[in-house]
Specification:
Largest sheet: 11 strands, mixed
Shape: elongated
Structural class: alpha/beta
Length: 247
């Protein structure tokens, strides 16, 4: 794999403090989680952050957040230099994004006894859908749902707990999490198909300028083309997510 360093002139743009602050969203365990042994963040997005820091020639400080919205806010407010989260029109203000590096499906979970059998039946009067507040699927459903009520909760675990408790009729989230819940609990099932594709990308504060965005975008394309992202997915045992096509 090519090991090209970043242009030295751009290192201060990305790391004005002398180190790269990378905002990591632990709310998407497909791409980031805490290492069981060390407690430190690990995963595909962490690997990408460390490689980008290596290209810049600066150390990396990982800033871990339990929810995507907090991770986004850190980058938007310039408290972090780059961040790893889904592209969404609602997140465009104050941020510049790369093309996605990984695609993840969003899926619905319903009680086994539910009369709902397909995605198109979810948006109906009287239905309540639990989501992690500020997540990519929350933003998507906010635009698309017309009749059902969206119940926004603090993270995916609470959204799933709401379904188990009977407080909602549907839970929405990352397919892998929905499938894991269905495997753990016999009284729920995942609806076939997907209701959205979550496009995981890298963001940078818009104030860093077009040159910074272009360098980050070029880095992401190289990581996809060279097999770095695919190898990271395999290394971390990620199933169901795919490397995004060239941007």
């Amino acid at each position: 794999m090519p090991q090209q360093p970043a242009p030295p002139a751009l290192a201060p743009t990305f790391a004005p403090g002398g180190f790269l602050r990378a905002s990591i969203n632990l709310g998407n365990p497909i791409l980031a989680h805490r290492d069981p042994a060390s407690g430190e963040p690990a995963g595909v997005s962490v690997d990408l952050a460390r490689e980008f820091g290596r290209r810049l020639g600066v150390p990396v400080e990982l800033m871990a957040f339990e929810r995507a919205a907090l991770s986004v806010d850190a980058v938007r407010a310039d408290r972090a230099d780059i961040g790893f989260f889904a592209v969404d029109p609602a997140r465009g203000d104050g941020l510049r994004f790369t093309a996605p590096y990984v695609l993840v499906e969003g899926a619905y979970l319903v009680p086994e006894a539910s009369a709902i059998s397909e995605n198109g039946q979810v948006d109906r009067e009287g239905a309540r859908i639990s989501v992690g507040a500020g997540s990519a699927y929350d933003l998507f459903l906010t635009r698309e749902i017309r009749r059902a009520e969206i119940v926004r909760l603090e993270g995916a675990p609470r959204a799933l707990a709401a379904l188990r408790a009977g407080d909602v009729e549907v839970a929405a989230g990352i397919r892998q999490l929905m499938e894991a819940e269905a495997a753990r609990a016999e009284d729920v099932r995942v609806l076939p198909g997907r209701f959205m594709v979550i496009r995981q990308a890298v963001g940078v504060p818009s104030g860093r300028g077009a040159a910074a965005q272009e360098l980050l975008a070029s880095f992401v394309e190289e990581m996809k083309a060279a097999g770095f992202v695919a190898a990271a997915l395999k290394r971390h045992g990620v199933d169901g997510a795919i490397v995004a096509p060239a941007g």
